[in-house]
């Protein structure tokens, strides 16, 4: 690493698509509603990264002025409220698709792994919320950013793509009848 590079460099370099814009092609499932929801997730990540002026490098919030800390806390709490509501809606939507298309009955293990991942993501967000402290908001921002990044790169590629493939097969089968 060169001078001036810190722990933030790998985060920014490994996911250059995160600063805004559309989902990368590898994460587009082809299901309009699910992809739109994932776009909302990407938008939340962009908003999260704007809360703190240097979320990747600051070790804690004590260096910032009290007014800046209050602004960050307000922004983070607002984003977390929106994110928790989004998570609930999105996961209910996907799990409803699993039930409605009978995927849950036919491929129970795949669905259970998907649902367990939803529960793990939700639990981690709740854990982050429970650990909010004014002097350590930047640490929670980094944790949340890492969680949401893993959600985009792991959960979508592993679970959501399989769900959409199932939907496509069901729709194709119904057309052939």
Number of helices: 6
Q: Which residues form runs of ≥5 with pLDDT under 50?
A: 1-17
* Strand composition percent: under 5%
Shape, principal axes of CA atoms = elongated
Largest sheet: none
- How many extended strands? 0
Looking at this protein, list some descriptive labels:
177 residues, mainly alpha, 6 helices, 73% helix, disordered N terminus
Structure overview:
By secondary structure, the chain is mostly helical. The chain has six helices and no strands. It has helices at 8-14, 32-51, 66-100, 103-106, 108-130, 137-176. Helix 3 runs antiparallel to helix 5. The longest helix is centred in the C-terminal third of the chain and has 40 residues, at 137-176. The protein starts with 7 loop residues before the first helix and ends with a helix. Residues 1-17 have low confidence and may be disordered.
